[in-house]
Amino acid sequence: MIELEYKGEVIELSEEMTIGQYQVYENKRKYYDENPISLLSLFTGIPVNEIKNMSKEEVQMIDVAISSKLEQPQEKDLIMVFTYKGVDYGLENDWQKLAWGAWVDLEVYSSENLIENIHLIMSVLYRPVVKYDKKNVTKYTIEPYDSNTIEERAQLFKNLNLSYWLSCASFFFLVVNLYMNNIENSLKLEKKINQKIMQGWKVMPKFLQKRLPLDSILVSLTNSQKKILPK
Q1: Contact of 221 with 179, CB cutoff 8 Å
Q2: Is 75 inside a domain boundary?
Q3: Do 65 and 91 belong to one domain?
Q4: Which residues pair with 129 in a beta bridge?
Q5: Based on the domain organization, do 93 and 176 belong to the same domain?
Q6: What phi and psi values does residue 3 have, to the nearest 5 degrees?
Q7: How many whole angstroms from its chain centre is CA 16?
Q8: Residue 147 lies in a domain
Q9: Domain ends where: 70, 92, 125?
């Protein structure tokens, strides 16, 4: 956590960009890259006019403090369960029983304006844990999908660090889409899945693209299709 003192108050900033900040930044990347004051305002919450009235030294201090937010986040393994605001959230782990509405929502959210819908996708994938296995805490049951709870949880998830999304992004593109496209004809399935993978890969951050080269993703996908496809 980064702490900045401004007007006698301490402003706490996460060392990582949040999902909400990432969405706003990516939606107007050129604007923010050309307007550094607006960028500082986005990450600190301090109004642009107030930043303009600060001394050069104060602005430089803030700039240094938040510069790490635009750097490459640390790579994380797939996060299955996390706690936020006192609630445990678990990644969907029973795809065969996932409600049809959830598949529809994932299809819609991932097909159009994916970056703008990250918080909504996360809200479908991660839901409150209602029970842990007494013998194995890595096994858990989450709340059934309920479309009425998606929006409220999605708004909450905007405040999560971006690394939560990055941890499951490749999983989402490589695995979830296989289930969303349960087509008997394997050639048709492969073509449709590859198109979605390519579409999703293009909007992923450049540093993540370097870690997950498109060619290797498609090869891995082809080799694993038979194992992943629902029977």
Answers
A1: no
A2: no
A3: no
A4: 142
A5: yes
A6: -115, 130
A7: 13
A8: yes
A9: 70
Q: What is the pLDDT of residues 175-197, one digit of tens each?
A: 656 665 554 445 565 666 667 66
Joined tokens for residue 86 = 């006192």
- Assess contact for 19 and 122: CB atoms under 8 A: yes
Instruction: Please name which of 154, 88, 150 lies closest in space to residue 118, comparing C-alpha atoms.
Output: 154
Q: What's the rounded Cα separation, in Å, for the pair 17 and 70? A: 7
pLDDT digits (tens, 9 = 90+) for 7-33: 666 666 666 788 998 888 888 878 777
Q: What is the DSSP string of the chain?
A: -EEEEETTEEEEE-SS-BHHHHHHHHHTHHHHHH-HHHHHHHHH---HHHHHTS-HHHHHHHHHHHGGGGSPPPP-----EEEETTEEEEE---GGG--HHHHHHHHHHHHS-TGGGHHHHHHHHEEEEEEE-SS-TT-EEEPPP-HHHHHHHHHHHTTSBHHHHHHHHHHIIIIIHHHHT--S-HHHHHHHHHHHHHHHHHTS-HHHHHHS-HHHHHHHHHHHHHHHS--
Number of domains in the chain: 2
Side-chain-side CA neighbours of 41 within 13 Å: the count stands at: 15
46 phi-psi bin (left φ>0, alpha ψ -120 to 50, beta other): beta
Q: What angle (nearest 5°) sits at the alpha carbon of residue 87, between those of residues 179 and 125? A: 10
What domain range is 39 assigned to? 2-70
pTM of the model: 0.68
Nearest to 162 by CA among 118, 206, 212: 118
Token pair 């706690």: residue: 83
Q: From CA 214, how far away is CA 222, in angstroms rounded?
A: 12
For residue 188 the two structure tokens come to: 């048709």
